[in-house]
Design a protein that fits this description.
Elements: H1 14-24, E1 29-35, E2 38-43, H2 44-60, E3 68-72, H3 77-88, E4 92-96, H4 102-112, E5 114-119, H5 122-129, E6 139-142, E7 153-155, H6 156-159, H7 166-176, E8 182-188, E9 196-201, H8 202-210, H9 212-215, E10 224-227, H10 235-247, E11 250-254, H11 261-268, E12 272-275, H12 277-292, H13 296-319, H14 324-343, E13 352-355, H15 362-370, E14 376-380, E15 387-390, E16 403-404, E17 411-414, E18 419-423, H16 435-441, E19 442-443, E20 446-455, E21 461-466, E22 471-472, E23 478-479, H17 481-488, E24 494-500, E25 507-513, H18 515-523, H19 532-537, H20 539-554, E26 562-567, H21 587-593, H22 595-599, H23 605-614
Parallel strand pairs: 1-11, 3-4, 3-5, 4-8, 5-6, 6-7, 10-11, 12-13, 13-14, 25-26
Antiparallel strand pairs: 1-2, 8-9, 14-15, 15-16, 17-18, 18-20, 19-20, 20-21, 22-23, 24-25
């Protein structure tokens, strides 16, 4: 069996790619993980052996081809191995965010009809045990720790079956797999009350991640390091930690936990990184804080370096390279000022940085480029797994998602109403148990992305609005505000709620209290209340609403919870332009009308530091 030809991915499956890796590079290190404070590597043969043990055990315990198996846990190599074991056994891997609530997990398990579940540790195990679905699971396999076997609960170490001929087993499993078979379900937020499970075939995963060949060819030429810290239930984490190693030279590093990703990045010094804007913004603020806290000489050196770097960036952005003398000056500034700052966070060897999932603030992107980090923005979503458009030029100007990728099999066009449509070999094939939503998203082989774009004068695509009601936080989470608002409106004291947070760090809510119910409650306790304005300013009313939101938050996943709120002093209405006649929210109008109120619920310290660092 020959080494994988990247131009001939047609017909390949996840098991066939693993089998080829095992045949061509069994002793080559493919993965790195940190456990108990020490790094250890894993060869492709070791990796395959561990996959085979769990895969065989799943079959022995009754897994049939096409059965769903859920996985819920923090980012880890054990999660990856379990995922691969499910797919090699012919199952469908269903990734679930490890912060999901009991109610959400119940829905995911029931919707996918999962037969088994792998959980990261005790926290996730306790969540599973509190679901109504738990008795329908054949086994609950705990990946981390020495869980005592009880009922259907068993540790991964005890669950795995020793396999003498792991190479033969995996080869036989690869022969059974087909490119158009469903390999995975990835849940994504929708405009309805329930998340939608995107059905991804082997072809979807391989061709979707394969779009990186057009975006970052270096990943396929020589070894690159990446720290996997985004959830493996998300297509970005899945692509980095599972699929990319099968088709590229990317080497994934897994830290002790995703919460410690900053320490992991500092140790690993990644050369490639794809992350939501929030991570770049957070690091930029931390670097800016170091600059602001330096002594007078250090601040003066930084200002001088920035004056040179801005001129060099202007040249590079225009002609592609700075004038020789200016470039020499910049190189000195980089070595003496910028590189030491980046090195403090492990970002000094970052050659291929990308961002996606939410709009990147122009000032943040420009600041990174001024520091000598060639940050680029691209577009992607769960339904296309990879990316259909990216900034290709070095030192691209902020404000666009770039141009359609050069692969002729992938096509991007703009519909008459401005919506971006995409066709290509890696598209998802539908939503699990949701035929109407599938028909709405897929028409004649074209994915309706729900994002409105315009074509700039330079031919680059710029996002201008969303057709779908989806909030993309700066941390890369796609969230349906309608679901959260419905939960908040369960309170008899709240008549309407508008959840905001697009491109922000967390979610906030604008609350319209029910004037009748709230006035009745308040007048029994407080004298002198006569108007709606009195209610909105009353401290007792504010505390009551706070308690009602706390109740709602208990039913929501962590990323969906409301962190701050303000009570509106007017109704959300057609007259003030924020509601349609059918009582649908005009979200852009809400954000514009109440901008000051929304902004007041966010700490702008990071933005202030970034603006200061740009000077």
């Amino acid at each position: 069996m020959n080494e994988l030809n990247l131009d001939e991915l047609e017909g390949e499956t996840i098991p066939s790619l693993l089998s080829k890796r095992l045949a061509t590079r069994p002793n080559q290190v493919g993965f790195f993980e940190k456990r108990s404070g020490a790094w250890r590597d894993l060869t492709w043969d070791d990796y395959a052996r561990r996959i085979a043990g769990i895969s065989q055990s799943l079959v022995d315990h009754g897994l049939q081809r096409g059965d769903s198996v859920a996985l819920m846990g923090d980012v880890s190599l054990e999660w990856v191995i379990a995922y691969m074991a499910v797919i090699n056994a012919g199952g469908v891997a269903v990734g679930i965010y490890f912060t999901s609530s009991v109610a959400e997990l119940d829905y995911f398990l029931d919707d996918s009809a999962s037969k088994f579940i792998f959980v990261g540790g005790e926290k996730e195990l306790n969540t599973v045990l509190r679901t109504e679905y738990v008795d329908k699971l054949k086994n609950i396999v705990v990946l981390d720790g020495d869980t005592v076997q009880e009922n259907q609960v068993i540790s991964a170490a005890c669950f795995a079956t020793p396999v003498e001929d792991h190479v033969g087993l995996l080869h036989r499993q690869a022969e059974l797999a087909r490119a158009d078979q469903i390999a995975s379900v990835v849940y994504t937020s929708g405009t309805t009350a329930r998340p939608k499970g995107a059905l991804l075939t082997h072809r979807s995963l391989i061709e979707g991640v394969g779009t990186l060949r057009a975006v970052c060819p270096a990943l396929f030429r020589e070894p690159q390091r990446v720290v996997v810290h985004l959830p493996l239930s998300h297509v970005v984490g899945m692509g980095q930690g599972i699929v990319s190693p099968l088709i590229s030279e990317l080497r994934p590093y897994f830290g002790e936990s995703s919460a410690e990703f900053a320490d992991t990045i500092k140790e690993v010094k990644p050369t490639y990184w794809m992350a939501p804007p929030r991570f770049y913004q957070r690091y930029a603020a931390q670097i800016a804080a170091i600059v602001a806290g330096g002594d007078a000489q250090q601040r003066a050196a930084y200002r001088l370096a920035m004056s040179v770097a801005r001129k060099a960036l202007k040249d590079r952005a225009g002609s592609g390279e700075a004038k020789p003398f200016l470039q020499t000056l910049f190189n000195t500034c980089y070595k003496e000022v910028f590189e030491p700052l980046l090195a403090r966070f492990g970002l000094d060897q970052l050659q291929y940085p990308y961002t996606a999932s939410a709009p990147m603030p122009a000032d943040v992107m420009r600041l990174w480029q001024t520091w000598g980090v060639n940050l680029k923005e691209c577009y992607g979503q769960t339904e296309l797994v990879g990316t259909n458009a990216s900034q290709m030029r070095d030192w691209s100007k902020p404000g666009s998602i770039g141009e359609p990728i050069g692969d002729p099999r992938w096509q991007t066009r703009v519909a008459q109403d401005g919506e971006m449509l995409v066709s290509g070999p890696g598209l998802f094939v539908g939503y699990l148990n949701k035929p109407d939503e599938t028909k709405e998203a897929l028409t004649d082989g074209w994915l309706h992305t729900g994002d409105m774009v315009k074509v700039n004068e330079d031919g680059l695509l710029a996002l201008i609005d969303r057709k779908k009601e989806i909030i993309n936080t700066s941390g890369g989470k796609s969230i349906s505000p309608a679901q959260i608002e419905n939960e908040i409106r369960q309170s008899p004291y709240i008549s309407e709620a508008a959840v905001c947070g697009d491109g922000r760090k967390y979610l906030v809510a604008l609350i319209e209290v029910d004037s009748t119910t709230m006035m009745s409650w308040a007048q029994q306790r407080i004298e002198g209340l006569t108007s709606y304005a009195d209610l909105c300013a009353c401290e007792s009313v504010i505390r009551l609403v706070e308690g009602e939101l706390a109740k709602a938050n208990q039913k929501l996943a962590q990323v969906e919870q409301i962190k701050c709120f303000k009570i509106l002093h007017e109704e959300l209405s057609v007259e003030n332009g924020v509601m349609t006649p059918t009582r649908k929210k005009r979200r852009k109008n809400i954000e514009t009308r109440y901008k000051a109120l929304i902004d007041s619920m966010y700490d702008d310290e990071e933005e202030r530091l970034i603006r200061q660092a740009e000077r």
